[in-house]
Amino acid sequence: MITLTAWGGFILLALLLAHGVGAWFAYLNHQRWSMPLPTALADFREASQQQLAQRYHAERYRLESLVGGLELAALLLFWLLGGFVWLERWSNSFGLGPLGTGLIFIGTLLATTALLGLPGTLYSTFSIENRYGFNRTTLATFLKDRLKGLLLTLLLGGPLLAALLLFFQWAGDWGWLYAWGMLTVVSLFIQYVAASWIMPLFNRFDPLPEGALKERLQRLAQRADFPLEGLYQMDGSRRSSKGNAFFSGFGKRRRIALFDTLIEKHSEAELEAVLAHEIGHYKLNHVFKRTAMGIVHSGLLLFLMGLAMQQPALFQAFGLNQPTVHGGLVFFTLLYSPVEMALGVVFNRISCRHEYEADHYAAQLTDGAQLGQALKRLHNDNLTHLNPHPGYVLLHYSHPPLIERLRALG
């Protein structure tokens, strides 16, 4: 049993506060289903469809509340019953030195967290999403995805974690700077190759078939002076009936992908407007800005992590008398969680502003009414909450709610 220190009490309070804020706004968001729809959307969704959406989100709310509460309880029990002390001793028992011990320590925590989250993911995918007509994933596909994700974690995440531990062990106070440089280079490289090397491991990307739609979209790219290197159709229907589109990569590996479910449900004019929105992100330098923000964010995180590792009281809060790099990485992550929540609000606001700007760009380049129609169809098909709570939006929405996007489009 761990005796709570002053630092331990502060971290415990921070974790409870972060969870409590998230749970409170999730509850308020859930309660908003009983309110009438905004006037502009009153006739947008039939009563039966709204009731279906309400039941769907009620089930998701209950599951997410249960899983979130259990995960927090498991973490606190593990901590207060001396789990980190035991794990440190067990990791050291292999005699693999600081690097090997650190990899075992963090790897065990990550694997345990993944296993604890697996039942909730399975229930969400094969029960809730199944009953509401969204899931198209087979158990075989689900297991293959998890296996591929595990292999990628081992092949990419393992060496990255090892390098991170070595930098902090070798460079001391300047370890954060070396780690920041490494992570920046690696993240830029992954962005460059993700569309060509990583995403195809999970989905098939076929060039958009020849025909009227492709010709229309190519003419759009020419009007926008957008160097379209690749326009692809992604087999999103293998896993879900929900539609989407996204822009990825840069340079010669830049590509735009449309889900086959999106193509199936939308008119050519709506798809043109959706593509114009994605082009807008590129033309307005949103990709560069988000990448720059991510780099600055990781630098701040690593700098503060370096400072925290110099505080013996942080390790004593978790029952460890001897500071270690791997322990510092884990404990700082817990200490930093409320700050991360606050930064998430800032990043979400910036992301929402980018969405408004891309919508405006698309409305100028094509027909804003068609973009509005596409957004309405997407939200209706996906049973989206049409009247979310503002606090929940701040915490979780990287895209503005539908009513606000439609108002901005006029």
From TrEMBL:
Gene3D superfamilies: Metalloproteases ('zincins'), catalytic domain. Keywords: Endoplasmic reticulum, Hydrolase, Membrane, Metal-binding, Metalloprotease, Protease, Transmembrane, Transmembrane helix, Zinc. Pfam families: Peptidase_M48, Peptidase_M48_N. The chain crosses the membrane at residues 6-28, 65-87, 99-128, 149-171, 177-198, 291-309, 329-347. Its main location: endoplasmic reticulum. It is found in: Endoplasmic reticulum membrane. One of its GO terms (biological process) is CAAX-box protein processing. Its cofactor is Zn(2+). It is a multi-pass membrane protein. Binds 1 zinc ion per subunit. Its EC number is 3.4.24.84. The active site is at residues 278, 359. The keyword Plastid does not apply. One of its GO terms (molecular function) is metal ion binding. Residues 30-204 form the CAAX prenyl protease 1 N-terminal domain. Zn(2+) binds at residues 277, 281, 355. It is an enzyme of class 3 (hydrolase). Residues 208-409 form the Peptidase M48 domain. Belongs to the peptidase M48 family. This is Ste24 endopeptidase. It comes from Magnetococcus marinus (strain ATCC BAA-1437 / JCM 17883 / MC-1).
